[in-house]
Design a protein that fits this description.
single chain, mainly alpha, elongated
């Protein structure tokens, strides 16, 4: 699943429209919608999205042997 689909799912689950998410992130609804279409988010931006949707972001790199590097 690509990031635009995941963010849209966050909106549905948290009962927020994309426009409202953008407003809560201090972005215009149009600018936030375009950013979602481009799909280029930093970890910090994803953390902010998690905050406004009331969830926690967990990022990690997982090697084939199971070793994990957690991004915080």
């Amino acid at each position: 699943m690509v990031i635009d689909e995941q963010i849209k799912m966050l909106g549905v689950k948290s009962n927020l429209s994309i426009s409202e998410m953008g407003r809560r992130l201090n972005k215009t609804p149009q600018a936030f919608s375009q950013k979602i279409k481009r799909g280029n988010f930093t970890v910090d931006e994803l953390s902010e999205i998690a905050l406004v949707t009331g969830c926690k972001l967990k990022c990690e790199f997982v090697f084939s042997d199971g070793y994990k590097v957690v991004v915080e």
